[in-house]
Write a structure and sequence with these properties.
Helix content: 10-25%
Distance between the termini: 48 Å
Strand order of the largest sheet: 1-2-3-4-5-6-7-8
Low-confidence stretches: 1-16, 39-58
Strand content: over 45%
Number of helices: 3
Structural class: alpha+beta
CATH topology: Porin
Number of domains: 1
Shape: elongated
Order of helices and strands: HHHEEEEEEEE
CATH class: Mainly Beta
Length: 209
Amino acid sequence: MNDSSPQGATSPHRRNRGVAELFRLCRLRLIVLAATVLVISTALFPAPQACAQYQTTASRIGDLQIGAGFVFAKSDYNFTPINLFGGALYTTFDIRNHWGGEFNFRHTRASSDSTVYERTYEIGPRIFLARGPLIPYAKVLYGRGVYNFHNNIANVAFNMYTFGGGTDFQLRRSINLRADYEYQTWMGFPITNLHPSVITIGVAYHFHE
């Protein structure tokens, strides 16, 4: 892939690379392990409240919600942390008692440089539980990320994958609130893969019978 992005990192940044990568790997493994334990344990021993909601979902073709939210992200281009803020659109469609799919779109812009932004398109499966009004979930997504470099010197797209999770809260029958976290990996990014950490706070309309 041809890329006209800025040149490499300085020596101090390179010396910190190993420590930063080890920290990211440990954090990712902890997130995946915690989500897996939560899903398996509660799926094997469902609460009574959950059973009624599962039966409701199973009685129709699928369970759909469409939402939007505010995004707060931390990225690390060239080993230099940057904070980004923006918005998101997302939709989930659950076709079984415990699993379904998700698609989301995000656009965030750096707080320190308005010419730098990250835009992502992601889709993939998710697994969820129902605990009264709470619906915790875990997901694995794949998609495309677009990075716009400083002063618009380059605008390049990269394949990416995401591990994430969060919870929806049923405020009303038709309204769900969401708190969501994603750990993204942008593959083939200059110097090293990009690993944004992304938090989304959203609200969705939940379609029902």
